[in-house]
Amino acid sequence: MNSEEAAALRDKYLIRGIVPRDPLVIDRASGLHIYDLEGNRYTDLFSGISTNNLGHCHPDVVRAVAEQAGRFMHVSGYYTHPREVELAKSLVDLLPRSLCKVFFCNSGTEAVDGAVKLAKKTAVVEGRQGSTVIALKGSFHGRLSLTLTLTGQRKYKARLGNYANYPGVVHAPCPYHYRYGGGLSEDEFGLRCADEVAEIIDHYASGDVAAVLVEPILGEGGIIVPPDTYLPRLEKICSERGVPLVVDEVQTGFGRTGKIFASEHWGLKPDLMAMAKALGAGLPLGAIAVSERVDRALEPGDHFNTFMGNPVSCAAALAGIRVLTRDRLHENAARQGASMIKHLREAMDEIPFMGDVRGRGLMVGVELVWDERTKKPAPELADRAKAEMRRRGYLIGVGGIYKNVLRIQPPLIITEEVAQEAVENLVESIKESAKI
Ligand SMILES: Cc1ncc(COP(=O)(O)O)c(C=O)c1O
Asked: What is the pLDDT of residue 436?
């Protein structure tokens, strides 16, 4: 089969509603590279949406998967198996100390939905109603009913009737200083945004609040790093009111931001955490981690699913965590990310269309604008720069509330040499697209 034949079958048999696909038809991948059916090689700077943190087909993961697949692949959540409990222990050892137990599911959407369910159960067992959940404007948490409602971006929910209108969800301000800072310093703006959540809890929400849900760095929203004052203040506001803080680390987890979990940058002690993407080291796996308080509220039978703790996914995840911690890939992410951001910031002087460069570790965003002063979003320029990067043999992502943020989220094994070449190509691609 060649790429043209694969594309014809795709258009005939896969539903139209999938996001527009890149023309690339993939044959194989290894380390930092993806090869198409015609043998062309691409450097992967997007990691299957922030997922292939160890690069493609890491030999330790391939070995663990093959070994487990030959032993047994599925038994259902009714039975215990060694990989599941070993993984649970390894994960708890890495998590913020407030989190002591985990539940394994299959995706980020399931992890966030399940985390909110467990927060609501906790509220009810503790004698509250738990009718309201606060999420952020600009956030992304998934595309099924509850998670789509929680997602604070209209572009994902248009024309779906009331599907994305799960009751009791309220959206709080997005800590997006570049756009909404309004002349405040970053620190002041961070405090202001957190205080708005306190206002909602105390004065605006129609019922008591079961949970406040945040991505520590908003990924799909455009790699929005909140001011350093924001999350600590938010955590204090929640804890003073007894409201569980739920952290969505689906995209930020497992070394991506330079720490194993982004929550560590601010020393957070959440009551619940959702994880997925890089957890499965390339296989589908999600997890919900809970505090003792939440675990205490649960009764046997509260949560379950057929594929929970899938043995092959757990074996991959276990091997993945061993590689991540043994090779200290989060430290490489911190180093390479900082140097990419530094070089991209230097290019801002010569390219007025680069409105903002931001990120932590290897979660890097370049926000493109038509005008430095008005900050008019430039989604057309972002699409052109992405296509130009592809022509040069690099795969990047585009995201953002206004679809104008280039997303650079390569595997954490990236070397200095590849990272610098990638940045040079990115700068040239933006120039080329803007005809500078
Ligand atoms: C922060 C965050 N939460 C949840 C999700 C949903 O995860 P999944 O696509 O695995 O269902 C995503 C996916 O991009 C995400 O970035």
From this structure: 81
Whose C-alpha lies nearest to ligand 1, atom 7?
Answer: 108
Kindly give the distance from the C-alpha atom of residue 22 to the centroid of ligand 1, in angstroms, as a whole number.
Answer: 19
Query: What is the whole-number distance in angstroms between the Cα of residue 329 and the centre of ligand 1?
Result: 22
- pLDDT tens, 270-320? 999 999 999 999 999 999 999 999 999 999 999 999 999 999 999 999 999
Q: Using the 8-state DSSP alphabet, how is residue 250 labeled?
A: T
Sketch the domain layout of the chain as residue ranges.
3-57+328-434, 72-326
For 356-403, write each residue's pLDDT tens digit. Answer: 999 999 999 999 999 999 999 999 999 999 999 999 999 999 999 999
Query: Quick one: 118 exposed, middle or buried, by C-beta within 10 A (0-12, 13-18, 19+)?
Result: buried
What is the CATH code of the structural domain delimited by 3-57+328-434? 3.90.1150.10
What is the Cα–Cα distance from 192 to 181, expressed in whole angstroms?
A: 10
Q: How many CB atoms lie within 10 A of CB 230?
A: 24
Q: What are phi and psi of 56, to 5 degrees?
A: -85, 140
**Interatomic CA distance for residues 424 and 383, integer angstroms:** 18
What sign for the dihedral angle of Cα 167, 220, 22, 286? negative
Q: Fold for domain 72-326?
A: Aspartate Aminotransferase; domain 2 (3.40.640)
Q: Which atom of ligand 1 is nearest to the CA of 49?
A: 14
Burial environment of residue 240 by CB neighbours within 10 A (0 to 12, 13 to 18, 19 or more): exposed
Of 281, 407, 218, 415, the C-alpha closest to 335 is: 415
CA-based nearest residue to 397, from 355, 432, 364: 364
Report pTM. 0.98
